[in-house]
Amino acid sequence: MAEKILEVKNLRTTFQTLAGEVKAVRGTSFYVESGESLGIVGESGCGKSVTMLSILHLLDENARAEADAINFVGQDISRITTKEMRKLNGYKIGMIFQDPMTSLNPVFSIEQQICDPLMRHLKLNRPQARKKALEMLETVGIPSPESRLKQYPHELSGGLRQRVMIAIAMCCNPRLLIADEPTTALDVTVQAQILDLMKQMKEEYDTAVVLISHDLGVISSLCSRVIVMYGGVIVEEGLIDDLFYETGHPYTAGLLRSIPRGDGEKLVPIDGTPPDLLNPPKGCPFAARCSHAMKLCREAMPPKYPMNEHHYSCCWLHHPSVIAKRGEAKLI
Amino acid sequence: MVRYIIKRIVAGFLSLLMLITLTFFLMHAIPGGPFSSDKYRKTPQAVLEQIQDQYGLNEPVYVQYISYLQNLAKGNLGVSFTKLNYSVNDLISNGMPASAKIGFLAILLALLIGIPLGTTAAVRRGHLADGVSMVIATVGVSVPSFVLCVLTMYLFCDRLKLLPTYGLSSWKCYILPVGCMAFGQIAYITRLMRSSMLETLRQDFIRTERSKGIPELAVIGKYALKNSILPVITYMGPMVATLLTGTFIIEKVFSIPGLGRYFVNAIGDRDYAVTLGLTIFVGALIIICNLIVDIIYAFVDPRVKIDR
Lengths: 332, 308
Ligand SMILES: Nc1ncnc2c1ncn2[C@@H]1O[C@H](COP(=O)(O)OP(=O)(O)OP(=O)(O)O)[C@@H](O)[C@H]1O
Ligand code: SF4
Ligand SMILES: [Mg+2]
Prior knowledge:
The complex is a heterodimer. By secondary structure, chain A is of the alpha/beta class. Helix content of chain A is 33%, strand content 23%. Chain A has helices spanning 48-55, 82-85, 110-121, 126-139, 145-150, 158-170, 188-205, 216-222, 240-245, 250-257, 295-299, 320-326; strands at 4-17, 20-33, 37-41, 63-66, 69-72, 75-76, 93-96, 176-180, 208-213, 225-230, 233-239, 305-306, 312-313. In chain A, strands 7-8-9-3-10-11-13-12 form an eight-stranded mixed beta sheet, with helices on both faces. In chain A, strands 1, 2, 4, 5 and 6 form a five-stranded antiparallel beta sheet that branches. Chain A is globular, with a radius of gyration of 21 Å. The model of chain A has no long low-confidence stretch (mean pLDDT 91). Chain B is mostly helical. Chain B has a domain at 90-269: MetI-like (MetI-like fold), CATH 1.10.3720. Chain B is 74% helix and 0% strand. Chain B is built from 13 helices and no strands. Classes of the chains: A alpha/beta, B mainly alpha. Magnesium ion binds next to α1 of chain A. Iron/sulfur cluster is lined by residues 249-250, 284, 286-287, 290, 292-294, 297, 302, 315-317 of chain A.
């Protein structure tokens, strides 16, 4: 079995706001194995970004993240200071963000933006860093990298900027790459190119990838394992095939029904809205929208029900007495 | 770049011409002339006529205007009506050095304190440092400079007897005028810097810098600073020009032989030539400063397209 390079145990993140405490992440636990790619899927606002930003110490000031442990390559990074974390950011863990239009600093050249982490983490001098930066731009498929280095972000298209972001995130050859909706802001054709590039980079550098998306289609093109998040908790986790063919959670089933399948079948969006994270329900977060919801669902948070070695689902439908009464739920 | 600069210089000339014309005709539209004040009540009418003739004040206004422009083209800003044998050029070369020295030091002080103070306030928003700097900024903007001058003079010169009250004979003389002049500017720059830094820190690319492992000090002091200093650069244009040419109140209170005094005296005395000459001088300086600032801005912010 591959080594777990990242293991998150019971992560809880809250935001202090004027309206009260937003409980954005409510006890998530998961792991990433070296070299694998893990997808995190869920509707907008379910806590995907906040989960990863908590791990990387990149949250806003009004946030508080706590965890029993976050082990990254043998070090508990939930206990270290932000200052110490910055020595791992960009070096052992790279990150790509959703909007390449706003994620690059407008008043610094591409060269300055790539060379800085190279010089800091790899202790290169300027000419060495420049050389490495050129190599990286070439690797991510940017034409005439020599002249691109001197340019500023506004002179590049969205797709090129996202390639630059990938080059920056990958330049120190990190163990883990976190991509937060890296293709959402791009044109469809460019999306496919960027996904291909990420696949290629992952193979070339043997980096583990966490890909955040609300689109199961995007996730399935890159990831072997998936976490489904809803209302600040993980509701289902499993290999991509388990999720597609042995769907365990009604919310996952809803997500699957809302993927365009290309066979002309109508999409079925999930009715209703996600729970209010200021006052999250004490039972299953999906209860208000679930067509299978029972009285028990509103009363108590369902535990993890293992479905196979890699696959579990947090839904009362898997409780033996419920199965005895209703039989195996047919979700799809 | 060269084309842009030439274009800006031409535009600058046109604005200057407009300024000259407007000031000239407005000055002449005000009733009363340089020799109509009480001082000249006992002067015989014939003598006054003679003097007015000598300065060309009896000519039609447009003739005066044209001859003024002709002189100006030769670099001659005119002669004073009230100070005998003094040309406006003389006044400038007399007053400018003192004003410019004080102004330059005040600008330096304002930038050196205002930028770090505003940045700290933004980074420590809601904490003590923010509160302190905002109090300074509010006081600085709302306390009139003459109050500040008089208070500090009373405290440091009269009570503590630490600093001299007038002149510019030693370095100690500079402390109060420079400090008083800079205070309001520090306040303004601090506020400007704070709000623009807060805006910058909200941007996505700051999170990117952190995700690259850049230490917080460099994220703020390098990556955020270059973005948030842009409004300060813009403000520098008019600020530099006005501070370099002196402030009447400060020069009056601290008896500094600067340009600001001449300006206000000239207006009181209806000394057209001096008022006009100094207006043009200050106007030209503002235009030049703005041009320089715009060029610096284009260097700092690559998004500014100047070759079009
Ligand atoms: N700075 C903040 N202050 C208050 N609440 C916040 C803050 N940042 C995030 N949240 C809340 O945390 C919750 C989770 O947000 P998160 O960004 O993780 O969602 P997401 O799953 O990444 O969604 P998206 O697909 O829109 O990116 C949201 O409900 C949001 O309102
Ligand atoms: S626990 Fe109940 S409400 Fe939640 S998903 Fe399962 S059946 Fe639906
Ligand atoms: Mg997000």
